[in-house]
Amino acid sequence: MIGVLEVGGTxxxxxxxxxxxxxxxxxxxxDVDADAPEHVLLDSFVAAAGSVDAPPAGVWGxxxxxxxxxxxxxxxxxxxxxxxxxxxxxxxxxxxxxLRADVVFLNDADxxxxxxxxxxxxxxxxxxxxxxxxxxxxxxxxxxxxVADPGDPRGGRIHTVTVDGAPLEDVVSRRALRxxxxxxxxxxxxxxxxxxxxxxxxxxxxxxVVARSYTVLGSVxxxxxxxxxxxxxxxxGSIAASWDVLEPPFRAGAGALPPVRVVVDSDHSALVGAxxxxxxxx
Length: 282
What we know:
Elements: E1 2-7, E2 11-18, E3 23-31, H1 38-50, E4 59-64, E5 68-69, E6 74-75, H2 91-99, E7 102-107, H3 108-119, E8 127-133, E9 137-143, E10 146-147, E11 162-163, E12 166-167, H4 174-183, H5 192-200, H6 204-228, E13 232-236, H7 243-254, E14 260-262, H8 269-281
Parallel strand pairs: 1-4, 4-7, 8-13, 13-14
Antiparallel strand pairs: 1-2, 2-3, 5-6, 8-9, 9-10, 11-12
Helix pairs in contact: 1-2, 3-8, 4-6, 5-6, 6-7
């Protein structure tokens, strides 16, 4: 059995995963305040880990969001709107000391697609790309089940791409959609779920906002998927439930795409991916 953690912008999940089947055996989830002090954040990670009764020996896999030095286990969160208290902190050393176990890290989008490759919709795919749509946007690139750097985007991080000199997440992210919808005269309290529901129902403002954002995303990802030679494209994250609304403008911008698989309930994907990563390090 393998203990794993998955840290998101608003939560931490812990689980025990059976490497014989890649089935999540036990899991726990807790809310996290990304603006909390260092000791509060680390306490929440450790508390989650302690709640799933993981085996005392073995390597823990931890899926973390960017920007993070995954090899060294150190946060690089300066200038981003999350986990500022972990900037420069050796998270790996802190977790090893408190869990009394070794710890290895990987990017959360990499963990998502690796989990789907091991036990989900991308099982056994040769060249697979995963995209996570949530608070921000992430991407992971695999060749034969091994995380790969496609070169473009650098390190496989699609959120580092710029569009007309601005970060991609200024166009495609939860905050970008809400800002654009408000600027177009929409309800400033509407979140992505409400905006996409309005677009589904034919609201012209919502449809225009969604179309502009996801046509841009398609134009960014489509050529890179083709250059990578992807034979499968997997979409997950909290916004994936609205893919029926997002897909038409995405395809309009992307052009030809490989087969697309949507994972509406991807809560376990990154946990399984973290377990696969830990199993290879053990």
